[in-house]
Amino acid sequence: MRICVIGTGYVGLVAGACFADMGNNVICVDNDNDKLNLLSQGIVPIYEPLLDELVKSNLEKKRLKFTSDLENAVKESEICFIAVGTPQHEDGSANLHYVFEVAEQIAKSMNGHKIIVQKSTVPVGTIDKLKEIISENTKYSFDVISNPEFLKQGNAVDDFINPDRVIVGADSIESVKALKELYTPFFKTDDRFIVMDIKSAEMTKYVANSFLATKISFINEIANLCEKTGADIEKIRLGIISDSRIGNQFLYPGIGYGGSCFPKDVKAIIKTGDNNNCEMKILKSVDAVNTAQKKLFLEKIINKFGNDLSGKTFALWGLSYKPQTDDMRDAPSIGIVNGLLECGASVKAYDPRAIGTAKKIFADKINYASNSYIALKDADALLLLTEWNEFKRPDFDKMKLLMKSPVIFDGRNQYDCAELEQKEFEYYKIGK
Ligand SMILES: NC(=O)c1ccc[n+]([C@@H]2O[C@H](COP(=O)([O-])OP(=O)(O)OC[C@H]3O[C@@H](n4cnc5c(N)ncnc54)[C@H](O)[C@@H]3O)[C@@H](O)[C@H]2O)c1
Fold first, then answer.
1. pLDDT in tens, 41-58
2. Range(s) of the domain holding residue 333
3. In a domain, 306, yes or no
4. Is the CB of 209 under 6 A from ligand 1?
């Protein structure tokens, strides 16, 4: 099939490369020329496992192209995906400016019937507005479909190629058929292609993310109660996940959820609730617990070292909001670093992939280490913020020799308390 994907970020690039890999002709459109220059040479500007190879091989086979020429891309395509960002406005609502702008451009570029697929996460009712914008700007017929994306950064290619489900919200049988044809190579069985009305599809994405965020805030709140009462969240976690109704995913206590989706999507559905006179009481608490959780970690450090951290150096392991990505959008590490700097501390950070991103955020306000052990030299404490694999089994004896004092604040509960006690580390974790 002939497809264009507008917006070549974490979602659009993965979708475009995976569709191309299934034999489709894909044009990826973006308005960021620096990004396009790199991509056209087969250089992927973000870190996402497997994506490099996929982009290179499909470029070579000429099934994948990168361009800023949206008009031509639309003219050459049967299906146009919108995958631009929907960041959050200050009041928490989704900023739909980019989506509406692209919809208008698509409409003005049409040369016949098109299927326009809304892949960005947008609030319920957005597609009604898209239909209005498009019909005001074209004389041709069109269908607009909702096809929210569920890939996880860090595992995006695999998630896209082996999806748990593909949700399609549509009001036209012909477009559903076209999307089914496009997605069929990604399924072994048909039951993962779920068709519904447009509004339900738009909402499904927010409901999935909000539920996952709820699990995280729930376990964090229980972890905080454990710290007050002497119970151990790790034992409790094991105790509850053995119940198959509860399940074992997304129940790890930590320093709060971050990333480009959960924080903004929870806020956006709260706003949708407010706009529809239906207060989202649980989700307001989920958001508030998360904001507090991000601050709590810093409070623990201040409790130990005092408000004035001048002269103190903190080693940071991990900056990205989760492992296997270089993305730091809304990462808990940002608030923690800023808090440490405000208290006068020095920070030396190491992350396997996110140093480039961190430099754009903190510039020379912090120091960057080329490996995890270099970060520890003369540190008053280590703060473990992202659970990258390479931090899981470190050489504690070597660490102790490098650090000024053997203190670890573990935001991801990676280590065994007994082992660290035996090695004479002062070890702080979440929920114990
Ligand atoms: N990142 C994720 O894990 C994820 C997962 C599922 C859904 N989503 C949703 O998908 C959407 C995209 O997310 P993302 O993380 O890929 O965003 P992103 O910021 O990485 O990418 C967006 C891209 O769109 C481009 N763009 C913006 N305006 C444009 C225009 N007018 N014309 C052409 N290109 C334009 C930007 O240059 C950028 O490359 C969001 O709605 C997000 O909520 C993201």
1. 999 999 999 999 999 999
2. 232-428
3. yes
4. no
